[in-house]
């Protein structure tokens, strides 16, 4: 499948005729909210050779037609991926744009998805939708307590369905206290040998009784000074996990260099942790976040910078790159201390269609966004991921030779992602 960019005047039936498919299939692949209404800038998945998006630096004096010939793609495809057209603003030498990249041979990768289980049939429905594309299911979360015990998740239904789909369930152990990742809670556990040993024992007892295939640790917002203690905790966990036939993985916060004293990220010793675990989930998202100013959730340039550093100190075959299944909706002008509302990527797409506002493209972050007004005439801006932006992120798996990808968080609808994943990779069941 490939990406088609809607322009002013496009109608779904006309697009369907042009790409030799039906409007019904276009609606299904893109989960469109209606058949008759589109907006400029909307990125649709359409039939075609398996195609991802790669970055390309424009050469001096090079036009669209010359670049299309060099890349071996049609002019229409190049326009859809680069977001440039002969009649519009011209690209410039040295500018980085997206261009199509044919997938001629699928790589086999591993895929993780985080789930916040409710203990209801909703969990089963989520896994029935995407289970065939998952290697691992990380249950979020088993919350560590200050006495070394664990608060359990409501995961019976999720574990049962995971087994049915051949998905290896991972117990995600966190320092999340129900409201936030608790800095002092992490320190209490890591700094006290008896509490730490009690926690390790409790982890293994529950992991065995619940049938988990591995342990995934997601400690965040730790003190930078707790860096050696966290390394020690992961090392000790590995010594008891592997003899039990389970894998050990961690969620790792994103950074572009090692600064041991940096707040929050200083505690993550990439080189040491990468050597201690079997694989890791690199959290390459949340630049745009609920409590911050409007921007892309996972800007491609920032994701690249994190991968450049991570792969310099961790074998890329251990890295599952994080991909967000959500965006954020912010008020404008953004007030100091303002809060955004989370929104599923597919919901964001259909909100733009409902409000009949064009979807714009931000080239440095390779991300879509749009502005709209509520019925109360409040102006808002939405940043999200779509078929084109996730296509560029999936291509990084090939470019950096990564182990695979990890999704936060299952239950947010993003059909184009799963179709592209299926089209571009073989998913290993472990």
UniProtKB/TrEMBL annotation:
Cellular component GO terms held in the UniProt record: endomembrane system
SUPFAM superfamilies xref list: (Trans)glycosidases, LysM domain
Keyword match Hydrolase: yes
Any one GO molecular-function label of the UniProt entry: oligosaccharide binding
Domain (GH18): residue spans on this chain: 109-430
Domain LysM residue range list: 2-46
Listed GO biological process terms: carbohydrate metabolic process
InterPro entries noted in UniProt: CFLE_GH18, Chitinase_II/V-like_cat, Chitinase_insertion_sf, GH, Glyco_hydro18_cat, LysM, LysM_dom_sf
Entry keyword set: Glycosidase, Hydrolase
Superkingdom classification of source: Bacteria
Protein name: Spore germination protein
Lineage: Bacteria, Bacillati, Bacillota, Bacilli, Bacillales
